[in-house]
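Archive transcription. Copying these from loose printouts into the bound notebook so they stop getting lost. Printout 1 of 2:
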Amino acid sequence: MDKHIVFLGLGSNLGNRHENIQKAIEHLKDKIIIEKISSIIETQPYGFVDQPKFLNCVLKGTTMLLPFELLEFVLEIENKMGRKRIFKWGPRNIDIDILFYDDCVINTENLKIPHPELHKRLFVLEPLCEIEKDFVHPVLKKSVYELYTQLISSRKE
């Protein structure tokens, strides 16, 4: 079986945020060999802003899971950790997003890879740049660093 390179975004804004991220990373190690983990950064909420600040990080790893198996695995971890999906962009004790899976492009109702919003989110691009700035977005054909600098400059205008 082949190993696949994956990038996952982790976030938490409820409970002990740092501990939640560490627990999620430990669970992920069951089926992912983690190669790099970014620094954990504190960020403002995205979308629905009337909620506590988030802690976010990004990790790079390899897995033998196929894309839909990976989705099932991360949802299982979120459920195990007590994630409640009350409304989109609402508060959560843990959020695990699949950002990239090799250079695959998947667009189904339940799974979209690359993550469709990642190029608009500093809280994803900043930690992603820290661990793999030269990775090229398979749809936008720009490196993570290019997407990051583009987003920064668009916010200054």
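Printout 2 of 2:
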Amino acid sequence: AAEAYRTLRTNVQFSSYDKEMKVITVTSSRPGEGKSTVACNMAITFAENGNRVLLVDADLRRPTVHKKFKLPNSEGIVNVILDHSQLDQIVHRDVTPGLDIITSGAIPPNPSELLGSRKNQKLIEIFRDRYDTIILDTPPLLAVTDAQVLTTISDGTIIVAQHGVTKKDEIMQAKDLLEKVKGNILGVVLSQIPIDDNSYYYYYSYEDKKPAPRTAKRTRK
């Protein structure tokens, strides 16, 4: 797994020559395609490279980051946006070396409005000042507009698709939704590809006229 995500990290870092990739949105077309797993492992891998990294669970509908890291979720980004908590109170610091995490907090009735609020935009700017890399785990694109909203304040977006499950037209629909808000699509991560009893990740950039696979072996634990 580690080598797969190091390859992904390198691809993201060199995806743009004239724009810093600081805020990265991770999404998918539909639920269950592995976006949260990719977001979490990306965050760990960026931190291992010596960066100060913040992972934000911006999936305010079905949050899972707190479960993956076994963190409390009574307070999170929602509480700060609503002015119910101070930012420094809800940051889980150095969950792994170099990695801070902000969980979602209580599920609100109006996620899209909160994520698109001026308060959330200001929070993202604060994060930019404090961290080298900010990774936002967001809901699937074909279900709700949340990921589109966050794409507009991100430097780039990754679409995660599950091998053998996600359909090509679903990926294209997700791509079209991001392009409608002028999102910078970094590429697609195809997860859970079974090859010789191992899983691989396949990545390609939309900038490539003839996308070539960039793979790295992911060993099972």
